Amino acid sequence: MGKKYQNYLSYPIGLFIALLIFSVILLFLGYDPISAIVSIPTGAFGTPNRISETLIRFIPLLLTALAFLIALKARFLNLGVEGQLYIGALLAYLVGARMGIIPGFIAIPLIFIAGFIGGVLWLAIPLIMKTKLGINEIFPTVVMNFIAMFVIAWLTTGLLKDPNMNNPRTPDVPESTWLPLTDLIFVFYIFMTIFGLVVTIKMYQKWKEGKVHPTLYLALAFTFLTLTIISLLKAIEAIIIEAFSVYRLHVGVFLVVIIALIIYVILYKTTIGYKIRAVGQNPRVAEHGGVSVTRVVITAGLLSGGIAGLTGVMEVFGVNHFLIKGFSPGFGFQGIAVAALGSFHPIGVIFAAFFFAVLQKGGESMQRGAGIPVDIISIMVAVLVLTVLIIRKWITTRNSS
Questions:
Q1: pLDDT per residue over 176-232, tens digit each?
Q2: Which of UniProt's keywords are assigned here (predicted)?
Q3: CA distance to 50, 273, 276, per residue, from 244 (Å)
Q4: For the whole model, what pTM was predicted?
Q5: 204 and 316: one domain?
Q6: How far apart are CA 327 and CA 316, in angstroms?
Protein backbone atom coordinates (compact mmCIF):
# COMPACT_ATOMS: atom_id res chain seq x y z
CA MET A 1 0.00 0.00 0.00
CA GLY A 2 1.36 3.44 -0.96
CA LYS A 3 2.41 5.95 1.67
CA LYS A 4 -0.31 8.35 0.55
CA TYR A 5 -3.04 5.78 1.18
CA GLN A 6 -1.46 4.64 4.44
CA ASN A 7 -1.90 8.18 5.81
CA TYR A 8 -5.63 7.92 5.10
CA LEU A 9 -5.79 4.98 7.51
CA SER A 10 -5.22 7.40 10.39
CA TYR A 11 -8.86 8.52 10.11
CA PRO A 12 -10.71 5.20 10.55
CA ILE A 13 -8.13 3.95 13.05
CA GLY A 14 -8.29 7.21 14.99
CA LEU A 15 -12.08 7.14 14.96
CA PHE A 16 -12.14 3.55 16.22
CA ILE A 17 -9.69 4.24 19.06
CA ALA A 18 -11.44 7.49 20.02
CA LEU A 19 -14.83 5.74 20.15
CA LEU A 20 -13.27 2.97 22.21
CA ILE A 21 -11.86 5.48 24.71
CA PHE A 22 -15.15 7.34 24.72
CA SER A 23 -17.07 4.11 25.39
CA VAL A 24 -14.84 3.28 28.36
CA ILE A 25 -15.40 6.76 29.79
CA LEU A 26 -19.17 6.43 29.36
CA LEU A 27 -19.22 2.99 31.00
CA PHE A 28 -17.18 4.34 33.91
CA LEU A 29 -19.68 7.20 34.33
CA GLY A 30 -22.69 4.85 34.14
CA TYR A 31 -23.97 5.64 30.62
CA ASP A 32 -24.84 3.24 27.80
CA PRO A 33 -22.10 3.73 25.16
CA ILE A 34 -23.95 1.92 22.35
CA SER A 35 -27.08 4.08 22.49
CA ALA A 36 -24.90 7.16 22.87
CA ILE A 37 -22.80 6.41 19.79
CA VAL A 38 -25.83 5.42 17.71
CA SER A 39 -27.44 8.77 18.54
CA ILE A 40 -24.62 10.63 16.74
CA PRO A 41 -25.64 9.73 13.13
CA THR A 42 -29.34 9.88 13.96
CA GLY A 43 -28.89 13.29 15.56
CA ALA A 44 -27.02 14.59 12.52
CA PHE A 45 -29.06 12.92 9.74
CA GLY A 46 -32.24 11.59 11.36
CA THR A 47 -34.61 14.12 9.80
CA PRO A 48 -34.39 16.71 6.98
CA ASN A 49 -34.25 19.44 9.60
CA ARG A 50 -31.29 17.76 11.34
CA ILE A 51 -29.45 17.43 8.03
CA SER A 52 -30.09 21.11 7.39
CA GLU A 53 -28.74 22.08 10.83
CA THR A 54 -25.67 19.88 10.33
CA LEU A 55 -24.87 21.64 7.03
CA ILE A 56 -25.44 25.03 8.69
CA ARG A 57 -22.81 24.12 11.29
CA PHE A 58 -20.50 22.90 8.51
CA ILE A 59 -20.35 26.42 6.98
CA PRO A 60 -18.52 28.35 9.76
CA LEU A 61 -16.30 25.39 10.62
CA LEU A 62 -15.01 25.20 7.04
CA LEU A 63 -14.49 28.96 6.69
CA THR A 64 -12.58 29.36 9.95
CA ALA A 65 -10.42 26.34 9.09
CA LEU A 66 -9.58 27.88 5.72
CA ALA A 67 -8.80 31.22 7.37
CA PHE A 68 -6.35 29.60 9.77
CA LEU A 69 -4.90 27.31 7.11
CA ILE A 70 -3.94 29.90 4.51
CA ALA A 71 -2.14 32.08 7.07
CA LEU A 72 -0.32 29.06 8.49
CA LYS A 73 0.92 28.15 5.01
CA ALA A 74 2.91 31.42 5.10
CA ARG A 75 4.10 30.69 8.67
CA PHE A 76 1.73 33.25 10.19
CA LEU A 77 -0.10 31.78 13.17
CA ASN A 78 -3.45 33.55 13.01
CA LEU A 79 -5.07 32.79 16.37
CA GLY A 80 -7.38 35.78 15.96
CA VAL A 81 -9.92 34.24 13.59
CA GLU A 82 -12.61 34.49 16.28
CA GLY A 83 -12.16 38.25 16.60
CA GLN A 84 -11.99 38.75 12.85
CA LEU A 85 -15.30 36.97 12.28
CA TYR A 86 -16.91 39.19 14.93
CA ILE A 87 -15.64 42.41 13.35
CA GLY A 88 -16.50 41.15 9.87
CA ALA A 89 -20.05 40.52 11.09
CA LEU A 90 -20.19 43.98 12.71
CA LEU A 91 -19.06 45.88 9.62
CA ALA A 92 -21.38 43.83 7.41
CA TYR A 93 -24.27 44.55 9.79
CA LEU A 94 -23.57 48.28 9.78
CA VAL A 95 -23.68 48.23 5.97
CA GLY A 96 -26.59 45.80 5.60
CA ALA A 97 -28.84 47.50 8.15
CA ARG A 98 -29.02 50.55 5.86
CA MET A 99 -29.96 48.65 2.70
CA GLY A 100 -33.68 48.19 3.19
CA ILE A 101 -34.61 49.70 -0.18
CA ILE A 102 -31.71 48.21 -2.14
CA PRO A 103 -32.38 44.97 -4.10
CA GLY A 104 -30.81 41.81 -2.77
CA PHE A 105 -28.62 41.18 -5.83
CA ILE A 106 -26.86 44.48 -5.03
CA ALA A 107 -27.06 44.41 -1.23
CA ILE A 108 -25.74 40.87 -0.66
CA PRO A 109 -22.44 41.34 -2.57
CA LEU A 110 -21.90 44.62 -0.71
CA ILE A 111 -22.32 43.01 2.71
CA PHE A 112 -19.88 40.26 1.72
CA ILE A 113 -17.35 42.90 0.71
CA ALA A 114 -17.94 44.74 3.99
CA GLY A 115 -17.45 41.54 5.99
CA PHE A 116 -14.26 40.71 4.13
CA ILE A 117 -12.91 44.20 4.77
CA GLY A 118 -13.85 43.99 8.45
CA GLY A 119 -11.84 40.80 8.91
CA VAL A 120 -8.89 42.28 7.01
CA LEU A 121 -8.87 45.46 9.11
CA TRP A 122 -8.94 43.50 12.36
CA LEU A 123 -5.97 41.38 11.32
CA ALA A 124 -4.08 44.40 9.95
CA ILE A 125 -2.77 45.44 13.38
CA PRO A 126 -1.14 42.08 14.27
CA LEU A 127 0.04 41.82 10.68
CA ILE A 128 1.79 45.19 10.84
CA MET A 129 3.28 44.31 14.23
CA LYS A 130 4.64 41.08 12.73
CA THR A 131 6.04 42.41 9.45
CA LYS A 132 7.17 45.90 10.48
CA LEU A 133 8.08 45.57 14.15
CA GLY A 134 9.08 41.91 14.29
CA ILE A 135 6.61 41.16 17.11
CA ASN A 136 5.40 37.57 17.29
CA GLU A 137 1.82 37.37 16.09
CA ILE A 138 0.50 34.96 18.74
CA PHE A 139 -0.12 37.44 21.57
CA PRO A 140 -1.59 40.28 19.42
CA THR A 141 -4.01 37.99 17.58
CA VAL A 142 -5.23 36.38 20.82
CA VAL A 143 -5.73 39.76 22.51
CA MET A 144 -7.64 41.10 19.50
CA ASN A 145 -10.15 38.27 19.96
CA PHE A 146 -11.16 39.55 23.38
CA ILE A 147 -11.30 43.15 22.22
CA ALA A 148 -13.64 42.18 19.37
CA MET A 149 -15.92 40.17 21.66
CA PHE A 150 -16.10 43.04 24.16
CA VAL A 151 -16.89 45.50 21.36
CA ILE A 152 -19.79 43.34 20.15
CA ALA A 153 -21.03 42.86 23.72
CA TRP A 154 -20.91 46.62 24.34
CA LEU A 155 -22.71 47.52 21.10
CA THR A 156 -25.43 44.86 21.38
CA THR A 157 -26.24 45.96 24.93
CA GLY A 158 -26.01 49.67 24.17
CA LEU A 159 -25.78 51.64 20.94
CA LEU A 160 -27.12 48.96 18.58
CA LYS A 161 -29.46 47.11 20.96
CA ASP A 162 -33.00 46.43 19.82
CA PRO A 163 -35.19 48.30 22.36
CA ASN A 164 -37.99 45.79 21.87
CA MET A 165 -35.87 42.82 22.94
CA ASN A 166 -34.46 41.76 26.30
CA ASN A 167 -31.59 39.82 24.72
CA PRO A 168 -28.35 41.64 23.86
CA ARG A 169 -29.07 41.82 20.13
CA THR A 170 -29.68 44.28 17.34
CA PRO A 171 -32.84 44.73 15.26
CA ASP A 172 -33.24 42.36 12.30
CA VAL A 173 -31.42 43.22 9.10
CA PRO A 174 -33.63 43.95 6.05
CA GLU A 175 -34.97 40.84 4.32
CA SER A 176 -33.34 41.90 1.06
CA THR A 177 -29.96 41.20 2.67
CA TRP A 178 -30.81 37.69 3.91
CA LEU A 179 -28.91 34.93 2.17
CA PRO A 180 -31.35 32.94 0.01
CA LEU A 181 -32.52 29.62 1.39
CA THR A 182 -31.84 26.44 -0.50
CA ASP A 183 -33.22 22.90 -0.48
CA LEU A 184 -31.62 19.67 0.68
CA ILE A 185 -32.48 17.90 -2.58
CA PHE A 186 -30.97 20.77 -4.55
CA VAL A 187 -27.81 20.62 -2.40
CA PHE A 188 -27.53 16.89 -2.99
CA TYR A 189 -27.86 17.18 -6.77
CA ILE A 190 -25.37 20.05 -6.97
CA PHE A 191 -22.75 18.16 -4.98
CA MET A 192 -23.36 15.01 -7.01
CA THR A 193 -22.89 17.09 -10.16
CA ILE A 194 -19.55 18.39 -8.87
CA PHE A 195 -18.51 14.91 -7.72
CA GLY A 196 -19.36 13.29 -11.05
CA LEU A 197 -17.56 16.00 -13.01
CA VAL A 198 -14.42 15.85 -10.86
CA VAL A 199 -14.21 12.05 -11.08
CA THR A 200 -14.77 12.17 -14.85
CA ILE A 201 -11.92 14.67 -15.29
CA LYS A 202 -9.63 12.63 -13.03
CA MET A 203 -10.38 9.46 -15.00
CA TYR A 204 -9.58 11.28 -18.24
CA GLN A 205 -6.23 12.39 -16.82
CA LYS A 206 -5.40 8.85 -15.68
CA TRP A 207 -6.34 7.49 -19.13
CA LYS A 208 -4.13 10.05 -20.88
CA GLU A 209 -1.24 9.05 -18.62
CA GLY A 210 -1.80 5.39 -19.50
CA LYS A 211 -2.68 4.41 -15.93
CA VAL A 212 -6.20 3.17 -16.74
CA HIS A 213 -7.19 0.55 -19.34
CA PRO A 214 -9.24 2.13 -22.19
CA THR A 215 -12.21 -0.21 -21.63
CA LEU A 216 -12.30 0.52 -17.89
CA TYR A 217 -11.92 4.23 -18.61
CA LEU A 218 -14.86 4.25 -21.03
CA ALA A 219 -17.08 2.39 -18.54
CA LEU A 220 -16.21 4.62 -15.60
CA ALA A 221 -16.28 7.83 -17.64
CA PHE A 222 -19.71 6.97 -19.03
CA THR A 223 -21.01 6.15 -15.53
CA PHE A 224 -19.80 9.33 -13.85
CA LEU A 225 -20.60 11.57 -16.81
CA THR A 226 -24.16 10.19 -16.78
CA LEU A 227 -24.31 10.89 -13.03
CA THR A 228 -23.13 14.44 -13.68
CA ILE A 229 -25.73 15.13 -16.38
CA ILE A 230 -28.65 13.61 -14.44
CA SER A 231 -27.72 15.46 -11.25
CA LEU A 232 -27.38 18.76 -13.11
CA LEU A 233 -30.78 18.29 -14.80
CA LYS A 234 -32.36 17.47 -11.43
CA ALA A 235 -30.80 20.58 -9.88
CA ILE A 236 -32.18 22.73 -12.73
CA GLU A 237 -35.58 21.09 -12.25
CA ALA A 238 -35.51 22.00 -8.54
CA ILE A 239 -34.86 25.63 -9.47
CA ILE A 240 -37.67 25.69 -12.07
CA ILE A 241 -40.33 24.24 -9.78
CA GLU A 242 -38.92 26.17 -6.79
CA ALA A 243 -38.83 23.05 -4.64
CA PHE A 244 -37.29 24.81 -1.68
CA SER A 245 -37.99 23.71 1.87
CA VAL A 246 -38.78 25.64 5.00
CA TYR A 247 -35.49 24.80 6.69
CA ARG A 248 -32.76 27.32 7.54
CA LEU A 249 -30.14 26.02 5.12
CA HIS A 250 -28.90 28.83 2.86
CA VAL A 251 -26.71 29.21 -0.22
CA GLY A 252 -23.64 29.68 1.95
CA VAL A 253 -23.21 25.90 1.86
CA PHE A 254 -22.23 26.24 -1.81
CA LEU A 255 -20.19 29.39 -1.35
CA VAL A 256 -17.90 27.89 1.31
CA VAL A 257 -17.08 24.87 -0.87
CA ILE A 258 -16.34 27.21 -3.79
CA ILE A 259 -14.09 29.29 -1.51
CA ALA A 260 -12.24 26.12 -0.46
CA LEU A 261 -11.70 25.17 -4.10
CA ILE A 262 -10.48 28.69 -4.89
CA ILE A 263 -8.00 28.51 -2.00
CA TYR A 264 -6.80 25.17 -3.33
CA VAL A 265 -6.23 26.64 -6.79
CA ILE A 266 -4.44 29.67 -5.31
CA LEU A 267 -2.14 27.58 -3.14
CA TYR A 268 -1.29 24.79 -5.58
CA LYS A 269 -1.88 26.17 -9.09
CA THR A 270 -0.60 29.76 -8.97
CA THR A 271 2.71 31.55 -8.51
CA ILE A 272 1.59 33.36 -5.37
CA GLY A 273 0.51 30.02 -3.89
CA TYR A 274 3.93 28.56 -4.59
CA LYS A 275 5.53 31.55 -2.87
CA ILE A 276 3.21 31.18 0.15
CA ARG A 277 4.14 27.52 0.53
CA ALA A 278 7.83 28.27 -0.01
CA VAL A 279 7.79 30.90 2.74
CA GLY A 280 5.95 28.50 5.03
CA GLN A 281 8.50 25.74 4.51
CA ASN A 282 11.64 27.87 4.81
CA PRO A 283 11.50 31.69 4.78
CA ARG A 284 15.27 32.13 4.44
CA VAL A 285 15.55 29.85 1.43
CA ALA A 286 12.52 31.54 -0.15
CA GLU A 287 14.05 34.98 0.37
CA HIS A 288 17.34 33.85 -1.16
CA GLY A 289 15.28 32.64 -4.12
CA GLY A 290 13.94 36.14 -4.72
CA VAL A 291 10.66 35.87 -2.82
CA SER A 292 9.57 38.88 -0.75
CA VAL A 293 8.70 37.18 2.54
CA THR A 294 7.01 40.29 3.95
CA ARG A 295 4.78 40.70 0.90
CA VAL A 296 3.82 37.03 0.93
CA VAL A 297 2.97 37.05 4.65
CA ILE A 298 0.84 40.17 4.18
CA THR A 299 -0.99 38.60 1.21
CA ALA A 300 -1.72 35.37 3.08
CA GLY A 301 -2.71 37.31 6.19
CA LEU A 302 -5.15 39.53 4.32
CA LEU A 303 -6.79 36.50 2.72
CA SER A 304 -6.99 34.83 6.12
CA GLY A 305 -8.60 37.83 7.82
CA GLY A 306 -11.03 38.36 4.95
CA ILE A 307 -12.21 34.74 4.97
CA ALA A 308 -12.67 34.95 8.75
CA GLY A 309 -14.80 38.06 8.24
CA LEU A 310 -16.99 36.18 5.76
CA THR A 311 -17.75 33.66 8.50
CA GLY A 312 -19.45 36.41 10.48
CA VAL A 313 -21.45 37.45 7.42
CA MET A 314 -22.73 33.89 6.95
CA GLU A 315 -23.89 33.68 10.57
CA VAL A 316 -25.58 37.08 10.73
CA PHE A 317 -27.19 37.22 7.28
CA GLY A 318 -27.70 33.50 6.71
CA VAL A 319 -28.75 32.13 10.09
CA ASN A 320 -29.64 34.72 12.75
CA HIS A 321 -30.57 37.78 10.64
CA PHE A 322 -29.39 40.00 13.48
CA LEU A 323 -26.19 40.65 15.43
CA ILE A 324 -26.19 39.16 18.92
CA LYS A 325 -23.66 38.96 21.71
CA GLY A 326 -21.70 35.70 21.60
CA PHE A 327 -23.19 34.47 18.31
CA SER A 328 -20.06 32.40 17.73
CA PRO A 329 -19.57 29.47 20.14
CA GLY A 330 -15.84 29.55 19.42
CA PHE A 331 -15.86 28.84 15.69
CA GLY A 332 -12.51 30.60 15.31
CA PHE A 333 -10.83 28.21 17.72
CA GLN A 334 -12.67 25.13 16.46
CA GLY A 335 -11.40 25.94 12.98
CA ILE A 336 -7.85 25.24 14.17
CA ALA A 337 -8.81 21.67 15.09
CA VAL A 338 -10.69 21.27 11.80
CA ALA A 339 -7.64 22.45 9.84
CA ALA A 340 -5.42 19.99 11.72
CA LEU A 341 -7.84 17.12 11.11
CA GLY A 342 -7.90 18.05 7.41
CA SER A 343 -4.08 17.89 7.20
CA PHE A 344 -3.98 21.66 6.60
CA HIS A 345 -5.14 21.09 3.02
CA PRO A 346 -8.08 23.03 1.46
CA ILE A 347 -9.75 19.86 0.17
CA GLY A 348 -9.07 17.90 3.34
CA VAL A 349 -10.70 20.52 5.55
CA ILE A 350 -13.96 20.23 3.56
CA PHE A 351 -14.36 16.66 4.80
CA ALA A 352 -12.96 17.47 8.25
CA ALA A 353 -15.44 20.33 8.70
CA PHE A 354 -18.33 18.13 7.68
CA PHE A 355 -17.16 15.41 10.07
CA PHE A 356 -16.87 17.96 12.88
CA ALA A 357 -20.36 19.24 12.14
CA VAL A 358 -21.74 15.70 12.31
CA LEU A 359 -20.04 15.12 15.67
CA GLN A 360 -21.28 18.41 17.10
CA LYS A 361 -24.90 18.14 15.97
CA GLY A 362 -24.98 14.43 16.74
CA GLY A 363 -23.50 15.22 20.14
CA GLU A 364 -26.36 17.60 20.86
CA SER A 365 -28.77 14.76 20.17
CA MET A 366 -26.70 12.53 22.44
CA GLN A 367 -27.13 15.10 25.19
CA ARG A 368 -30.90 15.25 24.73
CA GLY A 369 -31.48 11.51 24.23
CA ALA A 370 -28.96 9.83 26.53
CA GLY A 371 -28.58 12.68 29.02
CA ILE A 372 -24.82 12.84 28.49
CA PRO A 373 -23.32 16.22 29.51
CA VAL A 374 -22.12 18.38 26.63
CA ASP A 375 -18.66 18.65 28.22
CA ILE A 376 -18.12 14.92 27.77
CA ILE A 377 -19.07 15.27 24.11
CA SER A 378 -16.47 18.03 23.71
CA ILE A 379 -13.92 15.68 25.30
CA MET A 380 -14.81 13.03 22.71
CA VAL A 381 -14.19 15.44 19.83
CA ALA A 382 -10.85 16.52 21.34
CA VAL A 383 -9.76 12.91 21.89
CA LEU A 384 -10.67 12.09 18.29
CA VAL A 385 -8.55 14.92 16.89
CA LEU A 386 -5.56 14.07 19.08
CA THR A 387 -5.84 10.35 18.26
CA VAL A 388 -5.92 10.96 14.51
CA LEU A 389 -2.93 13.34 14.71
CA ILE A 390 -0.90 10.89 16.81
CA ILE A 391 -1.64 7.94 14.51
CA ARG A 392 -0.88 10.02 11.41
CA LYS A 393 2.46 11.07 12.93
CA TRP A 394 3.21 7.44 13.80
CA ILE A 395 2.42 6.30 10.24
CA THR A 396 4.55 9.10 8.75
CA THR A 397 7.49 8.29 11.05
CA ARG A 398 7.14 4.59 10.25
CA ASN A 399 7.15 5.26 6.51
CA SER A 400 10.22 7.48 6.68
CA SER A 401 12.23 5.02 8.78
A1: 999 887 766 667 667 766 766 777 777 777 777 777 666 666 666 666 667 667 666
A2: Cell membrane, Membrane, Transmembrane, Transmembrane helix
A3: 16, 38, 41
A4: 0.86
A5: no
A6: 8
